[in-house]
Description:
Shape of chain B: globular
Helix content of chain B: 25-40%
Number of domains of chain B: 1
Number of domains of chain A: 1
Oligomer: heterodimer
Number of strands of chain B: 1
Amino acid sequence: MKKPLLGEFETPSSNKYRVGPLQSIHMPMRRFREYEDVDYVIVGVGSAGGVLLQRLARAGFNVVGLEAGPFWDTEHDWVSDEAGSHELYWTEPRVTGGTDPLALGANNCGKGVGGGSVHWAAFTPRLHPSDFEIYTRDSVGADWPITYDEIRPYYEQLELEMPVSGPAYYPWGHPHGYAYGPHPMGGVGNALIKGCSALNIPVSIGGPVAILSGSHGDRPHCIYRGFCIQGCKVGAKASTLVTHVPDAIRTGAEIRDRSMVSRIELGKDGRVTGVHYFDNEGHSHFQRAKAVIVSGYAIETPRLLLNSACPGHEKGLGNSSGTIGRYLMAQAGNVVLGRFEQPVRMYKAPPAHALTEEFYETNPKNDFARGFAIQTVGPLPVAFGKQVLAAKKAWGWGLRREMMDYNHWAAFGLLGEILPWKDNAVTLSEDKDCFGLPIAHVTFNLHENDKKLIKAAREKTEEVMQAAGATEVVQEARYAHLVGACRMGSDPRTSVVDKFGRSHDIPNLFVCDGSLFPTQGSANPGLTIQALAARTADYLVSQGERIFTSNERDMTTTPIRRELAPPETWGKGVPRLK
Amino acid sequence: MKSHFDGVDPILCPRDPKTGEPLPPRSQPGYYPGFSTLSQGAFWDTATRAVVDKRVKHPPEPKFFAAEAWTFWTTVFAHLIPQTDRIPERQIPIVATLDHRLANDQTAGYRYETMPPDRVVYEIGIEAIDREAQHRYRGKFLVLPYLEQDLVLKAIHDGKPEAAQEIWKHMSVHRFWQMIMGDAIDAYYAHPWAWDEIGFGGPAYPRAYTRLERGEPEPWEVEEQRYVWLAPANSASAEVDSSPSHHAESGQHSLPVRSSKGARR
């Protein structure tokens, strides 16, 4: 073999984590004692937890992030290989059911510092203004307790912090532009452009994706290797591990990895006092804290709250509404595959690089409310094999033959809004995990509006694939993302937390992650999750010590604190087109 | 003279559509002759190279399955992903990868409520397949001729097993098929020899892909060179469903209209 291009690794050292070929985090980081009453414990250092940790540390709070998975050294731990990336996903036992059971694990659940942002495809569209009031507009779902205008400054801010690459003009929702240039097209993007253009459908080219199109600080540009959802070794794709965690550690936050939180402790005064967790050896610990923020995503967050039931909170901690675990949502994510006579080689370029939101909004001509997006996806061989298995019922020699044509296929994913339904829920199973904790049971049923929407979305996506020139079009039904299950709202009887993520029942308990969403639109949730985290952090900073001492609930929204962003990520121009 | 079919029964080999004659096994089937992802290892990062090298050179040792179960599933996987177009020393281990997964109780991170735990699936799955074989052909699965074995598995693929209803009552036929096929795909298409077969470029960090458009190969990749082949005459797995959008939602194992495309290419 020729001499390896990069040579050998540096000798591993306990106080340095590589989080890309150029970027590293130098340890030791600050360590708090368990008996120290830290200001905030954050359960889960993923998309939301990473941003919260960074903001709160920079504002001077003592903050500890407890993460069930490992603190990655990306150069050693991550590989350009589908089968070798198993560790990135949450693979602890869970049960999934209902009439339309959701695939979990690699499909939508991360484990380790950075959480799901490590293996997302990194599409970062914003929600539309209509998403915040679909009950008012269409009498379906629920309204958010905030408006688009309240989250908009945080969208603009996080788009700079990640940063997001995309076109100078993005026409849907609240039209806007992106500060960083769009990506070149791969074969799948070209097919989407061709199909959309033939049907006169506008299409967004080269973004919005949280992947660097040019080098940025100590992060290199994308190299189009296509392994986005196996973790970006390049460091070009944003994850909170590379965008926010380094600054959090630098400014005094602690991340305790391989620490599985089992229960939140409630004091006699009705305020939480800290969390119980298991370390990597299975030893039990208790970390005291003045306030607790749960950022475990839409399954582990409700599971932890349900598992923290105690006298006075028999249905689960902070569950007087009975809605913890309820109104879980996934988006319809059917994959439409098209075969082309000419090779496509869809493994090159990031899976996420072009989309259309032309069908996002409610159209009175349809027999359903709300809408969908159509996006590029680029399955690698193992994922594609399973899609061919589902879409063409292929096996044996048929599968071998279809797979030999891998390079002739392109794949589009539709992203369809499924409404929040009370019967779609996370509950506790009778089965236990290795710590003896009841595992999550996820129930998912499609309702009439969802089924009509999916049918229309599938037909439109197939039409676009055909218009792109595909000679054969097939599809696989599947679901993408997870949100809801601890939704925010103004009414304590029908929601778990208020508009800042604070429990209606317990004044120093917060939820901050995708489980807050009352509805989901047909935008990928990652950007909105991080924007909400930055917004919650601003609220906590503005409230200061009052969070730790007072039961009073101040609902005043404060202006965005740009100075809390990681250095060098703000003050750049955002084109405003409207 | 050494036979071209050394070690492989010609009747199990793919055929030439013009002559109907069996095609001798190749060291590399597929349309990318000479393409080798492994030859590019020097351009991969160390961690990736280690993982892929280990997969090729050191498949995991048997640990979970007893010898009989090992043989049983080896035979089943020879139908789910047949490899008789490959010379024996270039066939890709499937059971070893599955055995390793089950030994470590490694799962996808969820269990369908209509399914038992994965280890149980592979235990009672033997019974279910054997009972179907007994029911249809009056013999245990392993003693049946190849085509009859194929047809037993096809009954499960079609969602229509006729025997062992008390097993299927506690294990979804569709999810069972999805799991055993999923494991076969996980092992086969994770192997660099399969990448060579289908023309997948493989790992590309730190070097990068540079030709993104029009499906063009990198300088180190190979242009496609198609040849035509038919599945072996005695197989039942060649057909696929190409109807534009059958309704596969929510795991319903519907019976779609089938079209044989065996001779298309």
